[in-house]
Amino acid sequence: MAKQKKAQWPWHLLTGLILVLGVLAIWYSTSLISYEWRWNRVPQYFAYHAEQAQRAADYGSVESISRQGSDALVTLSVEGGEQQQLTVASDSLQLSEGDDVAEGDVIGVTRHWAAGPLLWGLWTTLWISVAAGVFGLLIGLVTGLCRLSANPTLRHLSTVYVELVRGTPLLVQIFIFYFFIGTVLNLSREFAGVAALALFTGAYVGEIVRAGVQSIVRGQDEAARSLGLSAAQSMRHVILPQAFKRVLPPLAGQFISLVKDTSLVSVIAITELTKSGREAITTSFSTFEIWFCVAALYLVINLPLSQIANRLERRLAQSD
User: Where is the ABC transmembrane type-1 domain (predicted)?
Assistant: First the structure.
């Protein structure tokens, strides 16, 4: 007799109830401190209408003003008999026909959409994460193989590097790299931040690679060598492809941690997502709203990474 499948809807209902209670708990907590929510102040920190002043190039007068919808075409007659035409927003126009203008006088402004500080911070976090992740992966791969090397110098140096990095806080490493190494070598803060994150990530990736390679049974290497492959060819074509399937979950977790660790480079004045959020709070006074948005943006980055890693892991498992 087939085993009857248990109904899952009560558990889904319980999950939804817990989430609702969590939201209510947050709302109740803010009500205790009389916090006033101001979500209307948040959108401008993602995108806003930027204004650019249009100025007279020389002394002259306003020859004509032609309205074109929400814009106005202003024709100036400047010294030397030349004309200057400026297109400005009609509601920003500060002169009338026949008015005299001096060099540098503001005629009006033009408006265009511009990315706000939170979007710029998100972009900075993304490119720092990608750059540090790529270099960290390369450093980690070399470090992991050196940890398994028969050469004592390579093995000992890679061990010292891994232990030093894993035994000290990332924040301290960023300070040392920027204020000491960066000052001596005259490095930019962006280069110093990416380098510190890459070295930090490389140490952990190195241990992940080492553990993955060692998890492959020795018989795989012996079989490859018996077929005439060299040690390097055996590692490249036999061992590493199998190890990659096993280290994919911890690698994905490490890169997700790297995205969050980029928030620490704000201590060397790199305006990434967290620092952008702090700056937005100082002008908007919307503390909870901004931090919730910052947390959501980190989720926007990390959730797709997690889903891609899970899908790739399932696909690799099917190929075994």
Answer: 122-309
